[in-house]
Amino acid sequence: MGTAHDSGHMQAAIADVRLRLQKLASILARADRRVVRTCMHNQSPGALISLATVVSAALPLGADTLHIVKALSHSPEFRDSLLVHTPALLCALLTKANASQADFDEHAELGVLLLSHPLPDAVPLPASAQPFFLRVFDRAIHAPDVSTLEPIYRMLNGACRELLRLLPSEARRRFDKALCHILSSNSAGQNSMLLLWCIGVVVLAERPHYVEGIRSFLSSSETTKTPNGSPERPWKTASGRKLFGSASDVNKTINLTYLSVMWASKGDVVPDSEAIEGIRIATRTLAHVDQEMRIAWPNTNPRAKDAFLKLPTKILRKGIDIGVQFEALCFHAMVAGENNLPSHIVEQYEVNLANITSLYTDTESLRESLSVSLPLFAPQLREPAIQELLSKLLDISTRPTSSHLSTFLILVEELAPVIAHCAPLRSKILLALSSNHLQESIQGFLCSQERGIQEVGSPYRDMVTPSLHRNLVSAIISMLLTSALTAEPSEPGLPRSLAIALICKQQKLTQVTTQPSLMTPPIAHPSVSLFEQGCTPSTGRHLEDWRDRLKSELESQSFYQRDSVIRSVARICQELENRCDTVEEPLHLEQSKSRELAAQIEQLQKEVLSLESKAVDRTFYIDGLDAEIASAENEKNSMLSSLKELRTQFDIANKEADEILHAAREDFMARELQYQSTIITHEEDLKALIKEKGQLADEVQRRESENVSLRELHELDINAMSNENARLTDEVQRTEREKRSLSALHETLNAKLGDLELGIEAERLTVSQQADEINRLQAVTSQLNDLQFSHQKLVRSSEAALRDLEARHENEMEVASSKANEEYEHLSDKLQDALHVGKQATDAYEDTRRELQLLKPTINSFEAKVQQLNTVCSRKDEELEELRSLRSRVQALMSVPSDNHLPIRTSIANNPRTPRQHRRRKSAIPTQDLPPKATTGTQGITNTAMEHIANASFTSSDSSRDGSTPKRAKPRPTFKILSMNVSSTQNPVYPSQSLAKKLSPAKRSALGQLSPNRRHTIVGFAIPEKDEEEEHEGKDDFGLGKRRGSLGGMDDMVQASFDMDGFLAASTPFTPGNIACGTGRVPEEEESGTEL
Asked: What positions belong to coiled-coil segments (predicted)?
């Protein structure tokens, strides 16, 4: 029995563990890789070892554990802890992955994750890694892509760095040939990330130890170079020569890597983690290129210069990931050189350096990036940034429990050698240490107490954290003393008091071991793996036999499994103890409650007789509640249908609004296109008119220039004619003077007339010639006048033609402008109409949406009301069941036969009688009262009238007083009374009436058989309303709640049958106003009724 019990507990524990593993797997499936890395990085080594122990123990439980290991293996810390705790896991996993294609597809990702980082020293590389690597590479050859080539790079960058050297020569040649094919393919040229992964594989295949000594590699590559700009050692592989074989190949490689970095820095093109690793590959690639060639590359061609200038803008864009930005800054600094870095690039690097805790969780990647970038940016770092960095280092060293100790330790370790070789950085650090800004931080750093192992318990969870803190403090002291000792005489020195204080603090540091307290005992493993035993020739050194190693591994696995089972059983036992402690106290409480309940049962048995009458009244009250529940359900159904109709109407309104809006938008777009075409047509017409106007202006200018030239020629002719006229006038005057002299000498020369006749005749000819000349001059003058007149006429015609042309074009422009304005106004009116239609559609949509928003609270209130009514109904059903059980117990105690049961809802539902209709009871939920709608059919019906109708069907109460025992009344035929249907949507308000209302026959049901000893039965007795009110005031706590209702708002009156057989078969006298309960007396403390 004990073994079966323990087995059951173990199975329950295993089921609980599986459930928790499924929950953890679902959480890790939704988490991002960076979140997992950060979470694991912030955990202590002891916690990581505990987690690795639990996960390795749960590996046989199911596939969920494999998903958990796959998600957590993105963290290098967890991966190392898992492999150290379970060394055989890697070999078993790779062996299973090599078994079949299905197993390879399932376990390939986890195998790549475990091999993506160097293995711990205690874990050798298994022999199954070789076929697994070749299988992954074959997949990359058949489908070259980022997803298939990235695993090759990560394994070569991790645990498989020396694996290629152990492969056969034929496999190495095939590997190199495949890389050359990928580099030469079009897919590599079109996919920048594929090109980067391929270049990274090429570099790691031939230079696997580049990452381990990057600083020494860079320093050696700067001193020893070949003519092609690569390090002195030549590249042996064809793929390496394809990248670095000549100067042109190197420039091409720089160009491709630079463009790929620009592509990775865009943001939304590739994931941030992939972009970070791709830029890091580009940085490693440029480390194999001479610095002079890197710096001279932007000047080789214009395209290189343009690309070089575009990268800083992409680095400094908003929203870029800080890790991508930091890697891109390192890459750009390698190309630009330490002396050509812009100030804004340096400022951004200072910002990233101040936020170094947000960069990486992988310490090796951070160390690599800092070792490349710090020597390049160090000479240009500003003094405020250095002060801020030193202040943060000193402050973090005073908080030993910080989760970023390893990050700052790497920063200090990488900064110390840079300080020794960079004079500007050293001078700024020494000046910062002497400034007043850092004095408080320095004093806090010097005054902080270092604690040893014996003080680790309270502030630390393990021993690694205090060791990191001690190493950080020691590294800071070493950095500061290095800066003081390597300073030149011209540089500022470290204050002597500070140097002495640092030396004293270094002496006070306690020695803290780096072995974690929760670390499991190390397992002795051989220094040579199985794969190395098969591939390495014997060196004569003694090696452990594989059988002994297999035996030790099996023993360690059984120890871990036994320890896990013991812990699980202990945890189960502890949970059982907790449950026992938790269960005992409620047991005592229940026992005390049972004793109290026994006393209460004895007291309640004394109250059975009084509760009998109240139970009967409650039965009637429950019947009324049943009817109200039915009406509430009907009302709920009507509300749900109304809600469905409202939702349908809302959907239809939304569709109509969307259609109207779509039509309005299409109309608006059509009108807009029409307006644009009209405007373009008018613009073309205006351009044509403007061109024609320019041509006319040119014609006018040409005419004016011709007129000016004619005017000038005319003036020249006038001047010439004036000169000629003046000459002729002088000649005429001279001739007239000579004529006068000749006339004067005529008398004296009369004698000589004969002699001079020939001379006179010649003179006459001369005078006639002169007269002809005068006539010619007069003709020229008249011609000149004609020319002047024609010139003036031409001027006037030109001016008139110009004015006519200007007037005509002005009229045409005015007409075109008026037409354009009219068309614009017409189009504007159409646009306003379209906007108005769109606005109306938007307003209709908004009105519909507001109406729906207004109806939502009503719908919610209706739903809440329905829920509350359901709750009330369920509670009343429970009360009904309690009352029924109580009635059966009372009847059993009173020895009353329970053949004639009171009517319940199930019997009513199965009874084929005409259903009785009750007026809906007013709900307890506060709702808005609607105004009453009185009808003529209900105004004449009162309580008294209904009482008379009921009294008419029973015998008088006086006749029952003469006899000792009332006789059973004969069965009478069924008669019908009027009942009114009240609409479920109407809720009229009437003045509140007394709680005690007359019960109509339709509300009564048959009672149980009465004892013949009951002498006090009152038949035909009715209590006035005034007495009812007095009795209502003295009602105790057992009274039923008010039954309020109204006859108002009835649409019609329907006759409802009342079964008298049920009353007469019970052999119980009835009163028309009040029902005789119990012994036949009127209950004094509680009355209940149902109002029609």
From this structure: 587-752, 866-896
* d(C-alpha 173, C-alpha 605), whole Å: 102
Q: Are 286 and 335 in contact (CB under 8 A)?
A: yes
β-sheet bridge partners, residue 982: 1050
224-240 pLDDT tens trace: 444 444 445 678 888 88
If you ran DSSP here, which 8-state letter would residue 455 be given? G
Tally of CB atoms within 10 A around 738: 11
Question: What number of CA atoms fall less than 13 Å from residue 918's CA on the CB side?
Answer: 28
- 68-126 pLDDT, tens per residue? 888 888 888 888 888 888 888 888 889 988 888 888 888 888 888 888 888 888 888 88
| CA atoms of 512 and 144, how far apart (whole Å) | 50
Q: How far is CA 347 from CA 87, 356, 425, 939, 1049, in A?
A: 47, 14, 15, 92, 82
pLDDT at 481: 85
Mean pLDDT value of segment 491-512: 73
| pLDDT at 472 > cutoff 70 | yes
pTM: 0.49
The C-alpha angle with vertex 150 and arms to 148 and 154, in degrees rounded to 5, equals 135
Of 232, 294, 302, 204, residue with least CA distance to 257 = 294
∠ CA(34), CA(36), CA(38), 5° rounding? 70
| The residue count for the chain | 1092
Under 8 Å between Cβ of 481 and 471: no
Answer yes or no: is pLDDT of 685 > 50.
Answer: yes
Q: Quote the CA–CA distance of 152 and 200 in Å, as a whole number.
A: 10
Report the C-alpha gap between 940 and 960 in whole angstroms.
Answer: 33
d(CA 81, CA 63): 21
Checking 248-252 for CB contacts under 8 A at 24+ apart, the result is 250/289, 250/293, 251/293, 251/297, 251/300
Strand pairing partners for 978? Answer: 1055
**Measuring CA to CA, how many Å separate 580 from each of 575, 583, 594, 775?**
9, 5, 21, 158
Residue-wise pLDDT tens digits, 32-76: 777 777 777 777 777 788 888 888 777 776 667 777 888 888 888
d(CA 323, CA 274): 11
Task: Please give the structure tokens belonging to residue 444.
Answer: 């806090």
Distance separating alpha carbons of residues 893 and 605, to the nearest angstrom: 9
CB atoms within 10 A of CB 947: 16
- Which pLDDT tens digit goes with each residue over 764-818? 788 788 788 888 888 888 888 888 788 888 888 878 888 888 887 788 888 887 8
Contact 1065, 1009 (CB under 8 A): no
Q: What is the DSSP letter of 32?
A: -
* Residue 473, CA distances (Å) to 354, 426, 455, 470, 604 in order: 19, 19, 17, 5, 80
The domain segmentation of the chain, as residue ranges, is: 227-380, 384-515, 633-743+757-869, 933-1092
Flag whether pLDDT at 987 surpasses 70: no
For residue 473, give the nearest of 446, 437, 455 by alpha carbon.
446
pLDDT at 169 exceeding the cut of 70: yes
Largest Cα span, the chain: 213
Helices and strands of the chain, counted as H and E runs: 37, 2
- Answer for the pair 535, 32: CB distance below 8 angstroms, yes or no: no
The answer to whether 295 touches 337, Cβ cutoff 8 Å, is: yes
Say if strands 1050-1058 and 975-982 run parallel, antiparallel, or are unpaired.
antiparallel
**CA separation for the pair 651, 649 (Å, rounded):** 5
Dig out the tokens for 517 from the structure. Answer: 């307290």
φ/ψ of residue 1056, rounded to 5? -120, 130
Q: What string of DSSP letters covers 499-566?
A: HHHHHHHHHHPPP---S-TTPPPPPP--SS-HHHHHHSPP-S-----HHHHHHHHHHHHHHHHHHHHH
Contacts of 435 (CB under 8 A, 6+ apart): 387
Strand intervals (E) in 964-1059: 975-982, 1050-1058
